[in-house]
């Protein structure tokens, strides 16, 4: 379970929102959720889950940039394009329904239509998502029976949210969830999220399956723009193994039942809501990086002094994506040479003579020259479960933060036997 209120990148700042203890995706008004085991997984773990809104919710989504895209993405994109509203999301794990051709697309549409009939809503108001093994057809007889049973599993309490979170996991070791609340025009507004992701994670739009619920009154266009902006600085700033999945998708739904005046960029509380929404995305993104397959440590790369924020983001991604950096962190080796090498090959402007690097509180490089440091102190720091790499290019005002994890023996073990 991810700790509510993980505010590492907001240290020293007063936040315009607060964590909701034991909050979940069903905390925002109007949402229920559930999950069950229908037989897609070899174990008895849940493998079919749903989130349902009692009203047509304003909706937004971002999708993988991999050119090979699974059938559910096409079906969901087409449905959302009709009016930008959703009543439900249906998700299966254990099978990606990717590279399955026209038959796989027909299966995804059947999932959408069957759940829509069960709920009594238009099919285009149901999004579908899948995660698991690529290249195998869904066992639709099992999916059908699971869909038929789903309505009695949907609840607005913690049990329904828990069942959903368990249903979307594959190689994940823990569920990823967060919930915050804030005041918008005198009304209490909630923003919550749940996600799955552990392997085949690389920053290229979405990078996993994520689901965000809110009871804020916000239009679909504003929600879509906010989701894209938040994705750029959160979900697109993580990497586990450099592989972008065929199934990555993040869906946001807003019921509007909090009763606030409609949120838009000119609303006086827009910045507060945007901060809360982005925070939810950040907590989920960091949770995915921390739970990387075989990982033992979260790596946070903080880049400052770049020529632009875009340059800083590119450099941060290169540092956290370096297999050599990830391996050094796993081995608790203060090998700053691997870090500066990654900075230099990111393809963005730098001054090779002005770079500062620190490992947490330990400065190891100043103005591109080695700084003597205590090896034992560095070893002790690197053995912790979070390693913060700070790089200052001393060139401009560009800043960014990226998150990754160490590369361990277990990553190879897990992925060498993924299908078995």
From TrEMBL:
The annotated active site, in chain numbering, is 207
Which residues does substrate bind? 170, 196, 207, 293, 415, 420
InterPro entries in alphabetical order:
Arg_biosynth_ArgJ, ArgJ-like_dom_sf, ArgJ_beta_C
Q: Does the keyword DNA-binding apply?
A: no
Q: What is its main location?
A: cytoplasm
**Reaction equations catalysed:** N(2)-acetyl-L-ornithine + L-glutamate = N-acetyl-L-glutamate + L-ornithine; L-glutamate + acetyl-CoA = N-acetyl-L-glutamate + CoA + H(+)
Q: In which pathway does it act?
A: Amino-acid biosynthesis; L-arginine biosynthesis; N(2)-acetyl-L-ornithine from L-glutamate: step 1/4; Amino-acid biosynthesis; L-arginine biosynthesis; L-ornithine and N-acetyl-L-glutamate from L-glutamate and N(2)-acetyl-L-ornithine (cyclic): step 1/1
Give its localization. Cytoplasm
What the entry lists under SUPFAM superfamilies is as follows: DmpA/ArgJ-like
Its EC top class is transferase
Question: Could you say which EC number(s) this protein's record lists?
Answer: 2.3.1.35, 2.3.1.1
> Does the keyword field hold Cytoplasm?
yes
Q: Which NCBIfam families match?
A: ArgJ, PRK05388.1
Subunit-structure text = Heterotetramer of two alpha and two beta chains.
Role, per record: Catalyzes two activities which are involved in the cyclic version of arginine biosynthesis: the synthesis of N-acetylglutamate from glutamate and acetyl-CoA as the acetyl donor, and of ornithine by transacetylation between N(2)-acetylornithine and glutamate.
Q: What name has this protein been given in UniProt?
A: Arginine biosynthesis bifunctional protein ArgJ
Species of origin: Thermobacillus xylanilyticus
Q: What is the lineage of its organism?
A: Bacteria, Bacillati, Bacillota, Bacilli, Bacillales
| Gene name, Swiss-Prot/TrEMBL | txxe 2393-argJ
């Amino acid at each position: 379970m991810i700790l509510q209120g993980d505010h590492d990148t907001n240290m020293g700042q007063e936040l315009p929102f607060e964590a909701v203890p034991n909050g979940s995706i069903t905390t925002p008004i109007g949402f229920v959720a559930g999950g069950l085991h229908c037989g897609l997984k070899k174990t008895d773990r849940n493998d079919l889950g749903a989130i349902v809104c009692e009203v047509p919710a304003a909706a937004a989504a971002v999708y993988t940039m991999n050119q090979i895209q699974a059938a559910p993405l096409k079906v969901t994109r087409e449905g959302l394009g009709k009016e930008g509203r959703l009543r439900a999301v249906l998700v299966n794990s254990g099978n990606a329904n990717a590279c399955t051709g026209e038959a796989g697309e027909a299966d995804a549409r059947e999932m959408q239509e069957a759940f829509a009939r069960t709920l009594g809503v238009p099919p285009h108001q149901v999004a579908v998502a899948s995660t698991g093994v690529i290249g195998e057809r869904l066992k639709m007889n099992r999916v059908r029976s699971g869909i038929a049973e789903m309505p009695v599993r949907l609840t607005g309490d913690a049990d329904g949210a828990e069942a959903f979170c368990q249903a979307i996991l594959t190689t994940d070791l823990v569920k990823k969830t967060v919930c915050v609340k804030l005041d918008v025009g005198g009304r209490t507004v909630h923003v919550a999220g749940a996600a799955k992701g552990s392997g085949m994670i690389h920053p290229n739009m979405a990078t996993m399956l994520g689901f965000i619920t809110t009871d804020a009154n916000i239009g679909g266009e504003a929600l879509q723009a906010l989701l894209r902006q938040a994705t750029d600085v959160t979900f697109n700033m993580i990497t586990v193994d450099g592989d972008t999945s065929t199934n990555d998708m993040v869906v946001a739904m807003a019921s509007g039942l909090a009763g606030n005046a409609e949120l838009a960029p000119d609303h006086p509380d827009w910045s507060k809501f945007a901060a809360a929404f982005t925070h939810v995305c950040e907590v989920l993104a960091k949770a995915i990086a921390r739970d990387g397959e075989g990982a033992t440590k979260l790596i946070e790369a903080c880049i400052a002094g770049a020529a632009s924020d875009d340059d800083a983001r590119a450099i941060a991604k290169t540092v956290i994506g370096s297999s050599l950096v990830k391996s050094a962190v796993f081995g608790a080796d203060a090998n700053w040479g691997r870090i500066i090498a990654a900075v230099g090959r990111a393809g963005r402007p730098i001054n090779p003579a002005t770079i500062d690097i620190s490992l947490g509180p330990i400065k190891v490089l100043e103005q591109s020259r080695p700084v003597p440091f205590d090896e034992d102190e560095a070893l002790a720091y690197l053995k912790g479960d979070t390693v913060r790499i700070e790089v200052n290019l001393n060139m401009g005002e560009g800043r960014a933060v990226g998150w990754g994890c160490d590369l361990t023996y277990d990553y190879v073990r897990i992925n060498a036997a993924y299908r078995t």
